[in-house]
Specification:
heterodimer, A: alpha+beta, 11-stranded mixed β-sheet, 4-stranded antiparallel β-sheet, B: 306 residues, mainly alpha, 14 helices, flat
């Protein structure tokens, strides 16, 4: 009976194969054995994985920043600009022209020659491509007039109007304009250049698989900082529990941890590296927008009717009550595991900004006063609000924090409706101000000046509404137009004060970003106030 | 027979057409990808220009016609997020998914059928109880929990296997077991109950009375007749396994189709979502068609009723 024999043979063979697969670990040692000269970093997400400045976003920085050198480095502690690829940068023609002097002798990886102003001009000019929608592409497309190269290492950019923000666009972490090799991109094409970038940075890209990992090698004698670890592997592991397991098994050396995973890492004896005051948290009280938007809600107790002083004052009282009702200490201790602070702030105003005030304290927890304020505002019986507990890049613990806030609001009589919705659909609604007046938690990253952030998120023309729209358009515009840095700082301070006094968002405190590292990782000079992993070249070996 | 097959073929094509329309409409109803991709600096004018550049400003009918005609040629368009052909991205990730699904299929075949058959033959024995307990346990245990448990035991405590990623043959062991576990339990239960049905039948008793060896009775006479529902369930199960698992791939960071689709949905990457759904649907419909035809071949009653 050949058929019966074949079936039995088949079953026997497949059984043997499965048994072999199951028994394999007993015969072959795991490759988890740590290598001393390799550093493995696990990231939860890395955006579009493209390194091209005209196509990328903030999310790609932990993946590619070390392949490049920024024109303007940042001081680790103060966030101030320092010479990088550019040795100096200065404005002229009433800030319509910016001249960058480039460092000579800096070489591209893989023999693509010296980095010159021609490479930088090429990089910036890619912003004019019709599909360039990342980085600072829109800024250049709308404001750049022309670029000149008077000599090999000098780049002169002429703008259509006065621009004080230009250096920021070429700075570490905030800016996007990494210098690409023109010769390389033209030789291999944009698609290949995006997946295998050639830069001048301390690590050279060796190979990688999209969605999986990328491997880099240290550039010996790099002009800025030769890395200690010869090899860097960055892996994409979206599940935090899996990242934690990788850390515990020794396959991963560095990964961001927060909440319960931070506690687990501490208990397991891992080193915890902390970036204090990295993300300002507040709850966005949607509805504070302009009348032409769907979310506009003058009848909402926290918004008020424009032109009606009494109504606006009551709304301010309601917003203050929403602030006072929340137990921030409980959030800091319970959710942030002590890695947060009460550092004063106004929205996007960090301690390193000119005009910062230490008086901008986070409102205390005072539910009694909150109830009183609600009563004074005619809302003693409370009202209904809608919240979206969702995960964001800058507030990965968003659901937990939102829930903590909601529970506190319920204690003062509010009815809180939870309406969970992912970023993919909620984000665009926020952009269009069609959230259904839904509140959410936000973690603000730093900008060079707070007004640069306000212009993006605080005016009627802004892309997003991350606090309120329209009410301070005149102030924001005046500050943006002011070219004198000190005068601008004064204007910014005044607006910072108004925003803080207006209780437009519910201030929760400032969260530290924490990483767990294995014992082979020594000191790490992370950049102050940043929420993402960068500066791998500044990681020392332990011991 | 030919009329039956032709009828099923037409049904399959209609199903595929309907799927293509549904997926095309659903991804568009879920919102505008440009609103996710555009940075804060982009004005309404910039956003409109980008929408026009990607052809998303045209009427749905025009967009569908373009999508359908290109899809027939295997072209699903450029990924909005990665700016690479969606087909290339799908093919790249499908290798990893096939690898993982393949191992899961092997595990299922090697474990579920023999154990299911012998649990039925030795009904009420310790093996039977153990198999039933395993099946209940296997079907009740969520894959993400099982996956993390395996990672904890074999990766963290014993340091025997990698906890995540893809690279060496060892990397596939834990995700393979996790993916196959649920299917083993389901197929084993079905095999057992199907075998129990036929083991009590007259022709099996007759085979035994005739003095046939027990192995022949079980595998040649009983299992062959019990296999019909097993084949149906198994075929669909195998397609499901080969199409990957979002949960298993996420837990083990396995760079397959599941992870790609999740990311594509998050970023509203139409071409990838459409491409993947169409490919997987075609696979399901194709396997169903083959199973239907096999059924008709194995069981004439089905042919006549059709």
């Amino acid at each position: 009976m050949p058929a019966a024999i074949a079936r039995r043979t088949f079953l026997a063979r497949t059984g043997a194969a499965a048994a072999a697969a199951l028994a394999a670990p007993l015969a072959v040692p795991s490759r988890a054995a740590a290598q001393t000269d390799r550093l493995t970093v696990a990231l939860g997400q890395w955006g579009t994985e493209t390194s091209l400045p005209w196509r990328n976003t903030q999310a790609e920085k932990p993946l590619w920043d070390h392949v490049f050198d920024p024109l303007i480095q940042r001081d680790f502690k103060t966030f101030a600009g320092r010479p990088g690829l550019a040795t100096e940068w200065k404005p002229s023609n009433e800030l319509r022209t910016w001249t960058f002097k480039l460092r000579p002798g800096v070489m591209f990886h893989e023999g693509y020659g010296e980095m010159t102003a021609e490479d930088l001009k090429f990089t910036v000019e890619q912003s004019f491509k019709p599909d360039a929608i990342g980085g600072s592409a829109y800024f250049f497309r709308n404001n750049l007039d022309r670029i000149e190269i008077p000599e090999k290492h000098t780049l002169v950019m002429h703008f259509k109007s006065r621009q004080w923000i230009v250096p920021s666009l070429f700075s570490q972490y905030v800016g996007y304009q990494n210098a690409l090799s023109r010769k390389y991109v033209e030789a291999v094409g944009e698609q290949k250049a995006a997946l295998h970038p050639i830069g001048t940075g301390p690590y050279r890209h060796v190979e990688g698989k999209q969605g999986d990992y990328h491997r880099f090698e240290a550039v010996p004698n790099h002009w800025r900082k030769p890395p200690v670890f010869k090899e860097l592997v960055i892996r994409r592991i979206s599940e935090p529990a899996t990242r934690m397991a990788g850390l515990r098994s020794g396959e991963i050396d560095i990964t961001q941890v927060f909440g319960d995973f931070l506690e687990q890492a501490q208990k397991a004896g891992f080193r915890i590296h902390e970036n204090v005051n990295a993300a300002q948290y507040w709850v966005i009280l949607a509805g504070q927008t302009t009348p032409d938007r769907e979310d506009y809600c003058p009848a909402c107790p926290w918004v008020g009717e424009p032109g009606n002083a009494k109504s606006l004052e009551n709304a301010r009282k309601v917003r203050q009550a929403l602030n006072l009702a929340v137990n921030k200490q409980a959030i800091r201790n319970g959710l942030w595991k002590g890695k947060g602070s009460e550092t004063p702030y106004s929205y996007y105003y960090y301690p390193f900004h000119k005009g910062y005030s230490a008086e901008w304290k986070v409102p205390p927890h005072d539910p009694e006063r909150a109830r009183k304020l609600l009563a004074e505002a005619g809302q003693a019986g409370g009202f209904e609000v809608r919240v979206n507990p969702y995960v964001q890049l800058v507030a990965q613990d968003g659901p937990d924090v939102m829930e903590a806030v909601a529970l506190d609001w319920e204690k003062i009589g509010l009815k809180v409706r939870r309406a969970p919705e992912a970023t993919s659909s909620f984000g665009p609604k926020g952009r269009m101000r069609k959230t259904g007046k839904t509140f959410s938690v936000y973690g603000a990253p730093p900008f060079d000046e707070p007004v640069a952030a306000w212009e993006r998120v605080l005016t009627a023309k802004s892309a997003f509404n991350l606090l309120l729209d329209g009410a301070y358009d005149v102030e924001v515009e005046a500050a943006m137009r002011e070219m004198d840095a000190d005068k601008r700082a004064k204007l910014s301070h005044d607006l910072g004060q108004k925003l803080w006094e207006g209780y437009h968002g519910v201030q929760l405190g400032t969260r530290a970003i924490t990483w767990a590292t294995t014992r082979k990782v020594g000191a790490w000079q992370t950049l102050a106030y940043t929420v993402a992993e960068t500066n791998y070249e500044y990681i020392a070996a332990a011991g | 027979v030919y009329r039956y097959i032709l009828g099923r073929l037409v049904q399959a094509l209609v199903s595929l057409f309907v799927v293509s329309m549904v997926v095309f409409a659903l991804v568009r109803l879920s919102g505008d990808p440009i609103q996710i991709m555009a940075p804060p600096e982009a004005s309404e004018k910039d956003i409109a220009a980008m929408r026009a550049h990607l052809g998303l400003d045209r009427p749905w009918t025009v967009q569908y016609w373009r999508f359908a005609t290109l899809a027939l040629q295997g072209d699903f368009g450029q990924s909005i997020r990665f700016r690479r052909p969606a087909r290339d991205l799908i093919l790249e990730r499908y290798g990893a998914t096939l690898e993982l699904g393949g191992l899961a299929v092997l595990i299922v075949i090697a474990v579920a059928i023999p154990v299911g058959v012998y649990a039925a033959v030795a009904r009420g024995s310790k093996l039977d109880y153990a198999a039933r307990a395993f099946a209940a346990f296997g079907q009740a245990m969520p894959p993400f929990w099982l996956g993390l448990l395996l990672v904890l035991i074999f990766g963290v405590l014993l340091h025997l296997l990698p906890t995540s990623g893809r690279g060496t043959p060892l990397h596939i062991v834990l995700p393979g077991i996790t993916l196959g576990w649920f299917a083993v339990a389901g197929l084993m239960r079905l095999t057992r109950s199907s075998m129990l049905d036929v083991l009590g039948s007259e022709y099996v008793k007759l085979a035994r009375i005739k003095g046939l060896r027990e192995r022949q009775v079980i595998w040649k006479h009983a299992f062959k007749n019990a296999a019909l529902p097993v084949v149906t369930f198994g075929a669909l199960l195998f397609v499901a396994l080969l199409n990957g698992s979002i949960i298993t791939e996420t837990v083990f960071s396995w760079p397959g189709l599941g992870l790609l689709v999740i990311e594509a949905v998050d970023s509203r990457d139409y071409p990838i979502v459409q491409g993947v759904v169409l490919c997987l649907s075609a696979m399901y419909i194709g396997i169903n068609l083959v199973v239907d035809v096999l059924y008709a071949y194995l069981n004439p009653k089905i042919r006549y009723s059709a």
